[in-house]
Amino acid sequence: MERTFAIIKPDAFAAGNGGRIISRIYSEGFKVVGLKKLYLSKIEAEGFYAVHRERPFFGELTDFMSSGPCIVMVLEAEGAIVKWRELMGATNPAAAKPGTLRNEFGSSVGENATHGSDAPETAAFEMAYFFSGLELL
Fold this sequence. Notes:
The structure is a single chain. By secondary structure, this protein is α+β, with helices and mostly antiparallel strands. It has a single domain, classed as Nucleoside diphosphate kinase-like domain (Alpha-Beta Plaits, 2-Layer Sandwich), CATH 3.30.70. The chain has helices at residues 10-14, 18-27, 42-48, 58-65, 80-88, 101-105, 120-130, and strands spanning 2-8, 31-38, 70-77, 114-116. The longest helix is centred in the C-terminal third of the chain and has 11 residues, at 120-130. The model has no long low-confidence stretch (mean pLDDT 96).
């Protein structure tokens, strides 16, 4: 079994889609081993997205991620990283395949409903940023 990190972003949370997304996570065979509702501060968002600090979208991204509550999760499944990324769909909701979360719940590249780790190393950092080992059941 593999673990990955996931976020239901502020846009999806504000639109009331958190429960629908969590339902899809379970129906797709993931086990949720960690879950928290958070309201990230700007500094917390900047720390989480530090890898993108030099990119032109960094300020807009961290402003958005600190604009309202989100849900952070650790998901477990066989091939969880790839499986979650496939369920999320393309970063641009307009390019995401029908049936993916971003196609259904995202509205733009910046407000695309969900986040997911892209590699085991990224997942390890992202999970540890929000969860201690004792919180993962």
